[in-house]
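step=encode ok
step=design start
structure_in=
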């Protein structure tokens, strides 16, 4: 008698994949996505906030998991590190973000949400309302750029006369669109574990560690928002499967760990997917 694994159970479901925020965590999400692809799990809808929005956008645009990993590993700090006079017409930010936008433009085979292979939602923080939003139409490059605009590191991004910052500072994981979605059966969450964890060890604090922003909603509140969204999804008769393997933490000055981060997330996710399904 064959034992049902988490992977075999998810293979037979119409799944949406939601990728959480997490400083330079796009390598981690790429490893998780690679493991899902390896096990034949193919999400039919995808969402992402901050680091998660990069991988989500590439996947929605038709880029396969292996190619996403290769593209991300080609990025060097000099490719996006465009220091500017920090006061701009949109607000304060040490990096202009123009080089980051160029990277996105070069990596994405399509530039509009409407051109994606599958539906995509990108989580952002709208400054004028102080609320999180999920963008799903218009220009993807601008949406992802806004979703990744870490306050004070990047200037806010203007889209349709509204200013946006990193979506992760209001909502860790963009799940709201899936609560009333009748086209899916399961929501898979690629959730970044706390940055202090790396194989159970504490890591040294680095750039922006411990910095508080006026736009930053407390972590515990964001966690509670995720829990509430998960509860609502379950109440709508959908299953929720959270993938949160331990991560290799890295930042703009430690990109030599990028491949390690992808491989570690991939290996840990494979172990989870090969385990007995239990209660998804």
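sequence_out=
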């Amino acid at each position: 008698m064959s034992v049902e694994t988490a992977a075999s159970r998810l293979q037979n479901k119409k799944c949406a994949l939601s990728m959480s925020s997490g400083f330079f965590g796009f390598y981690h999400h790429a490893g998780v996505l690679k493991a899902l692809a390896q096990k034949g799990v193919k999400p039919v809808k995808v969402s992402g906030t901050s680091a998660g929005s990069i991988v989500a956008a590439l996947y929605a645009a038709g880029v396969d998991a292996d190619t996403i990993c290769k593209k991300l590993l080609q990025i060097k700090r000099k490719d996006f590190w465009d220091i500017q006079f920090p006061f701009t017409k949109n607000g304060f930010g040490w990096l202009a973000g123009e080089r980051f936008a160029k990277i996105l433009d070069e990596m994405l085979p399509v530039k509009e949400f409407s051109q994606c292979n599958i539906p995509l939602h990108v989580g952002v923080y709208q400054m004028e309302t102080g609320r999180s939003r999920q963008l799903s139409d218009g220009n993807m490059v601008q949406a992802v750029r806004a979703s990744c605009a870490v306050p004070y590191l990047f200037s806010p991004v203007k889209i349709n006369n509204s200013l946006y910052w990193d979506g992760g500072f209001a909502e860790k994981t963009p799940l709201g669109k899936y609560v009333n979605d009748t086209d899916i059966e399961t929501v898979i969450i690629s959730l970044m574990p706390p940055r202090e964890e790396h194989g159970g060890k504490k890591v040294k604090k680095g750039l922006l560690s411990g910095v508080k922003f006026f736009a930053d909603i407390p972590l515990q509140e964001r966690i509670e928002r995720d829990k509430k969204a998960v509860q609502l999804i379950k109440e709508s008769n959908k299953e929720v499967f959270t993938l949160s393997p331990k991560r290799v933490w890295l930042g703009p000055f430690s990109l030599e760990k990028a491949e390690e981060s992808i491989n570690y997330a991939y290996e840990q996710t494979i172990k989870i997917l090969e385990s007995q399904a239990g209660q998804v």
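step=design ok
step=annotate ok -> Residues 219-235 form the longest helix (17 residues).
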